Amino acid sequence: MRDEILSHLNDARHLERMYRTNKLPFKQAFSTLYPELQGNPLADFWNERLNYESDSINWGTRKELLLVIIGALIAGIIAKLPALLGIKEEFFYPRNIGFILFPVLTAYFAWKNKVATGKIALMAGLTLAGLLFINSLPNVAKSDTLILSCIHMVLFLWFILGFAFVGEWRDNINKRLGFLKYNGDVVVMTTLIIIAGGILSGITIGLFTLIGFDIRQFYFENIVFFCLPAVPILGTYLTQSNPQLVGKVSPVIAKLFSPLVLVMLVAYLVAMIYSGKDPYNDREFLMIFNALLIGVMAIIFFSVAEAANTTQRQPEIWVLLLLSAVTIIVNGIALSAILFRISEWGLTPNRAAVLGANVLILIHLLLVTTQLFRVVAKKTNIEVVGRTISFYLPVYFFWVTIVTFLFPLLFGFK
Fold it and tell me: From which residue to which does the signal peptide run (predicted)?
């Protein structure tokens, strides 16, 4: 899109058509180009137009707001199905937690992005297949494959949501990075809404307590439990209708947390050596180690997604490079610990799932780190790093699909 904007820079009608067809990718591409185009009257006009921030909240169209309200009600009803239909909670929630939220968000983006009917049918078919599969698995008391399938089903639904957001299978770097950025933005907005809701709940319960009514159990079981799934839906709606709400917060968080996480990670590795603890013989420690790895990798990807939309200074790129390099060390330790445990105690579903995920993450981190090094050496730009992240995402989807649907069969539901 950058090249197309440059080639039609003086064609106002064509630029308008491009903007109306793909608003978010156009804005992202133009933002990276504007420092080179500053001084061009048409470029200055578009910069003012794209970065104009209204003081009021945009609630979108009445139709869109109605769809969001209906979606929130549907999510709340699904969350309350065990109470409404007498289903055992320990059976329902582990298997269906992802279906409370993700299908609603998928439907919202499919409608908003005008996804083709055939692609909507495909997403609906995949979601239905996942729903039927996960609820047909044997209800074994202790089943590693069931737990793995339930966890990866959430990721499977997240990838379907990503497809609805992007609207296509081909590697569209702007839209895929936009999806990663959306996840960061919606986490920020959801957190703010939860904090506000927590304050409101505390005041409400306190006021009723003052007049002699203890509504805590009723309030949490009915009001909070029903409304909680609506929070990410509302957060999504607000971030999509008002990108300026968190448009300046997310880059600050990315720039602030990246160096802090780097310092924390280095300190943690040093402390691990002195503590005598290691992931080779301590299963719980290995699980925490892998959770740390995934969290840090998510911060790297989110930071790169933010960096692709803004002009980055050299120190910020260095922080991302060092963070990626240290994360490779963490990944290497985790991977060697998994291989050690497999050689000592054999292959289990958990070890196979973690081994596959760590190998994929290691390859991805090596690719990203290589490109970050090239950015530091001024042999390429940050957009290439974003492209490296985006093209690899389907690989994770295929692995998630294997763990979700094939592991229970391959390991005999153990």
Answer: none
